[in-house]
Protein: ABC transporter, permease protein
Amino acid sequence: MKKSNGLGKILSKIIIYIALFALAISIIVPVGWVFMASVKRNAEFIGADINPWALPTDPRWENFKQAFVDARMGEFFLNSVMVTALALCLLLLIALPASYVLARFNFKCKGILNLACMAGLFINVNYIVVPIFLMLSDANKTFGVDFFLNNRFLLALIYAATSLPFTIYLLSGYFKTLPKGFEEAAYIDGCGYFKTMTKIMIPMAKPSIITVILFNFLSFWNEYIIAYTLMDGHDTLAMGLKNLMAVEKTATNYGIMYAGLVIVMLPTLILYIAVQKRLTEGMTLGGLKG
Structure:
């Protein structure tokens, strides 16, 4: 009986390792292929005898220069950095106090606010982008300005506002798991509610905050539909990549096209590698009771 149980555990581990290995290969191979293709010449893409898995014979690093300068990917990159950083700051500035209050305090209408936040999880922002555009366009006409469209700050504000339900849901769930003893000790030492939140509770929730930052960074960085609808002239990196792919595919400059893909992917990969340990903590500690 014991031998059969031991054999079953070994087989289950083997199956899990095989599945994880297959998943890792399915992710690593396409990413590695894009990096490899980004330094290839056009002659290495076209032809009946061309092996698509062959290493580049003479790496063409000029593909990145052409993507950055000629296709204005550098300008788009800066726009995306500004919008994403501003959106994350606005999001955390609103979501941290809101999630802390909803998780740790009892007050009137708390159930209604929680229900509103949960309802926001089921709203896909892509379905309401046209009403948002019409509302901002009407605001321009009403006030006689061109402020509400083609504005990086408002684009970042819309990103932050549409991500509030998901962020509050994650952070409030984490705040609920933190022991009340820390707050009680802070109150005894003379700390008020605001100081307790900023000095004690928010630093303790750092793993969950990093998880939220990473998820929302991926969403803001790769977003295309809202930026395409609301922006005209201050293109983000996703919009620039779409234009680059259309132009270079027509001109059969595949190396430059893949170089643009690498420019978009690289910040995400670097951020994930930098916060991988904290991300794991944030995804596991949130389920533990203090």
Observations:
- The longest helix spans residues 2-37.
- DSSP finds 13 helices and no strands in the chain.
